[in-house]
Structures are given as C-alpha cells and as structure tokens.
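Researcher: Structure prediction, please.
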Amino acid sequence: MGDRDVQEGLTMQSTINHDLAVSLNQEDRAKRAFVSSLRIHVLQHMSDNMKNRYEDRVASEARKTGNACETPEQIHKALKSDFVFKAYSSARTCAQEMVFDVVSESVDRELETLADKAAIKESIGSLTLDSSVSLPKNVSEIDVHLAPGSYFKEYAKGDVATGAVYDNAIEVFAFGQFGRDMNDIGMTLSNYIRLKYPEFKPTKILDAGCTIGHNTLPWAQTFPEAAVTAIDVAAPVLRYGHARAESMGVPIHFQQMNATQMSFEDNSFDVVFSSMFLHELPLKDIRAYLKEAFRVLKPGGLLWQMELPPMNQMPAYDNFYLNWDTYYNNEPFYGTFRKQDYRELLTDAGFADDQFIEATMPRYTFVGEDAYKEAIEGDNTFDSMTGRMDPNGTRWYGFGAWKK
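Model: Predicted structure follows.
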C-alpha cells in the first residue's frame, strides 16, 4: 500500500465494528480524515525530508567540526536546532494532540449511552475490578502519548470514556495500519506461534497491560480452545474492553491487576503476552513484571512480547527516529528500555539463555497466511521498517522465551 492507496482509503468510515461504536456526523468524519492525513504526511514525507536533511547537511557539518553522530542522542543533539527537525516535531506533536481532540468530541456526546451499553448483565467472558489496585506513577503522573487524563481517569460511575477515546483515537492515529479491527499486532504475534510451533497447544493465555483488548481478542480467535485472561490497572479501559469483547462475541476474562504484582498462582498460564507494554514502564518495573511472568508461566510455557526493536539491532539514525517519542510524546522510559539487552533481561528474570526467541514479522492481516508463513521461515530482518508504522512494509518485532 502506497501513499495514494492510503489517501484514497481515508474516508473515515468507521472501522469500529462493535456495539460501542459512536455515531459520526459529516464534520466528525472530515476532522478525523484530516488528522489521519496529517499524520501520514508527517510520518512519510516530513520524516523523509528530515532524514535527507540530516544526511546531506547536519551529519556532514557535524563531521567537519569533529562532533560524532554515532548514537541516537548525538544525532538528536546535532539535529534538534535545525528548522526541518523543528517543523517535523511541531507538526507531529500537534497531530498527536489533534487525534485526541477530534475523537473526544464524538465520545463526549455519547458518554451516558456508552456507559449504559457497557453495563452488561450476562456475558460469555467476565470483568473483575479491584478498587484496591493502586495506579503506578508511570500511569497516574504522565499523560501518556499526550492523551489528556491518560487512560485511567474516571468521571462518573461505570465510566468508559477513556476506553472509548482510546479506541477511536487508535483508529485515527493508525490510519488503517493496524488492520480492520485494529488487531493486526495480536493477529501477527499469535499466528507466529501457531505456525512456527504447531505442536504447541496453549489452554490458558494471559495478556498483560491489555488496555481495551485490541490485541487480546486475536489470541482467543487464534487458539479458540484456550481461556484468555487480560489485565490492566485502569478500570475504565477494562470496562470498555469487556463490553467490546462481548459485542464481538469473543470470551475474554478482564481483571484489574498490576502486572508487576500478579495475584495468580505459580504455573498458571501457557502463554504470557504483551504488546507495546514494556517501553511504558520504568526499568525496575520491567524487571518486576518479567519475574512475575516467569513465575506464573507453566513449565513449557512461553513469554512473548511485541515491542520496539532493541537498539543493538538497528542503525543509529533509525534508533534516533524511533526514540523521538522519548522526548516529545510523554514516553520517558522508551529509550531506556530499548538500550537494554533483551536476552539479558529475560535471563535475569529466570529464563534460560538458550530458550530466548525473537522475530521480525510482516503484518499477518495484510499479507495473508501463505505469504506470512513463508516470511517467518526466513532470517530476521532489522531495518527502517522494523517497528515503524508505515504503509510501505512495516514489520513487527517480537521477543520472548520458553520456560523450561
């Protein structure tokens, strides 16, 4: 899919296919289409201009003055005073803030209706909330992704507003690059395990840091015999996620719980999964979560994380580009996480070194099973498309380990 295909597809006919979809008028659709188009322009054209500017002028001038540009921090320092970088960063930050502005308008109009729809009396899954769960500071003190109120604020009893904003924001933010139900990450990671390890038949699966479950449901769809549990610390997103899953006919057991202090018994799950979760945590909490994941996994079980690729596998400029969010998108732990040796993180948590696995994968829902299966039989490829949302060929990155 190229620029023209993306632009022609931006009619903003909602791809939220469940009972909690909000009604959109012509003005809503126009605003959402504009913001998605702006994000495409920033992430493709302005980012290309910034890279060209860096290579043609900034890097050469830095070399002349004897200043090294070998690390993402050095590249950032050399580039941040340049007009092209300032224009890119300003436009990208504004577009990010606009995502939440344009979706909040339509969500606000239907707050009571959404809460009523989420108040499910009979269900195929379950929702268990625990008011004793305290919010960690990385959630409560940061408007993550520049989202006002982050993803935990509650404004009324039974509130689902932040869940609804998140769902609608992802649709605008991703401009179609997460698939029809915005579930491509979950579909890609779960089907990798199904196809790569066909003898592995999990019966209990845990998704940690699930938010509203975009990438949780694919595990239940890929492994329909398994019971799937999803945890998060924020009640509003869990309420919304539960109602969303119910309306889509997928049984998921949502629980309010901190992944660094799980209440599950030892050896409870065959799979512990997370998507874009670790880079939102301070390093001490990453270590605590990984130890908990090891504890609750059964022997023979799998820890499997969709994440940003590690710095030690990527070129310096691409590391700088990926780490932009550390400075400008309220994700302060992003860069620190990517500096870690992922294999070492897992061995420190108790996993054996020889049980480590990692993979770069094309998007399953975009390429189809045959092409996907062929791709995952090859070697892992780390380049500018790895971990970067781009219509021209994104590859997701996953890493994890089997528990002996």
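Model: Residues 266 and 295 are 5 Å apart (CA to CA).
Researcher: Thanks, that helps.
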